[in-house]
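Work Package 4 report. The design task specified in the project plan requires that, given a folded chain encoded as structure tokens, an amino acid be chosen for each position. We show below one input record used in the internal validation round.
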């Protein structure tokens, strides 16, 4: 949060600002405490929210210096920019919508946000180290592999072992492994790369090897109880992430961290579709309970017609060409959006007032519980 505020309206303006910002409750509490301290530090008529010990506006350089000092006391080397970079990179790589991340970052162009999706040199080095760790066979692994008959069985078992360790499952087509990785594994088991084509001609061989590898690595197949637990976990994630691809990646990481063999893509896709539908129903129940009947009917009307023929789709549709007619259509859409915004129900304001009353009560409680300094004798 940056910019200027009227010192006399600080609590009210910050409350209005907070009502639309996704801040953790602890961050809100700290901000409330800072407003109390700011009242004693800021100079007269100082409008900056963040002020220095001298009472003037806190510069970006001073804020960065404070972050570095706190990090140094904790034995870390980081800056305010590093914290911002880490936060935005984590949001993007977890599958959050770029438009949402751009709004949080204050970017006016998505191109500024997309740069956080690019891997850094450290990311690439870490990926190389992960690959080597997953595809390098230990002495125990080599003993298990060399107990098998034939070069094709040794190579097939070794590749399946590395796949479980790296991917969390065994792909049906083991030969799709990149040539460099296959050559690296083949060299460790004294086999030629082409011999992998002869592996698994008997389905029972692959099945027996999978059971052997799960025992060797300490992994397990997911029973029905685990599938039910995974379904509930996916619903929680689907509330946060709308993209199925992001849910697929998160589910793979979740199972791999618990050493549970990932189910087939079809089975996992069905679970994600079910979780996606349940997440939509859950969000609908949460939102519907906070809206009056008139507002719910108004929002439902935007979906009449379904799909691309609904009023909502029409409001989202961009102009396909330039001209007076298209300009009038866009102006009409903008007018409808403004009218909808002005018609917000009073219940929204009431909820903001309730949140403000609750935070005011929290501030009063903290002031009451704060230890008081002993009175000085005259």
């Amino acid at each position: 949060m940056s910019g200027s505020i009227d010192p006399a309206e600080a609590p009210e303006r910050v409350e209005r600002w907070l009502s639309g910002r996704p801040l953790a409750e602890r961050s809100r509490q700290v901000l409330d405490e800072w407003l109390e301290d700011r009242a004693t530090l800021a100079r007269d008529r100082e409008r900056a929210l963040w002020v220095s010990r001298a009472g003037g506006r806190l510069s970006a350089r001073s804020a960065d210096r404070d972050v570095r000092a706190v990090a140094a006391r904790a034995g870390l080397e980081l800056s305010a920019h590093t914290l911002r970079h880490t936060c935005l990179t984590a949001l993007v790589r977890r599958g959050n919508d770029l438009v949402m991340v751009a709004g949080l970052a204050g970017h006016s162009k998505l191109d500024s946000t997309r740069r956080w999706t690019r891997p850094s040199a450290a990311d690439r080095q870490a990926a190389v180290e992960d690959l080597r760790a997953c595809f390098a066979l230990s002495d125990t692994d080599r003993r298990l592999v060399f107990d098998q008959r034939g070069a094709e069985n040794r190579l097939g078992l070794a590749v399946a072992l590395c796949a479980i360790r790296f991917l969390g499952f065994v792909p049906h087509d083991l030969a799709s492994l990149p040539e460099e990785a296959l050559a690296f594994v083949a060299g460790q088991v004294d086999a030629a790369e082409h011999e992998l084509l002869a592996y698994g001609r008997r389905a029972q061989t692959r099945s027996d090897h999978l059971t052997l590898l799960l025992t060797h690595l300490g992994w397990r197949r997911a029973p029905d109880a685990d599938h039910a637990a995974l379904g509930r976990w996916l619903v929680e994630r689907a509330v946060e992430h709308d993209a199925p691809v992001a849910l697929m990646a998160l589910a793979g990481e979740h199972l791999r961290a618990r050493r549970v063999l990932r189910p087939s893509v079809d089975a996992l896709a069905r679970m994600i579709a079910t979780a996606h539908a349940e997440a939509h129903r859950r969000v609908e129940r949460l939102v519907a309970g906070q809206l009056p009947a008139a507002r719910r009917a108004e929002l439902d009307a935007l979906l009449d017609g379904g799909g691309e023929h609904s009023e909502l789709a029409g409001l989202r549709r961009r102009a396909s060409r330039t001209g007076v007619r298209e300009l009038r259509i866009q102006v009409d859409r903008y007018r409808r959006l403004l009218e909808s915004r002005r018609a917000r129900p009073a219940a929204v304001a009431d909820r903001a007032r309730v949140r403000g009353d609750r935070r005011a009560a929290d501030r009063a409680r903290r002031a009451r519980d704060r230890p008081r300094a002993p009175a000085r004798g005259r």
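The two ends are 43 Å apart (CA to CA). Validation will be extended to a larger panel in the next phase.
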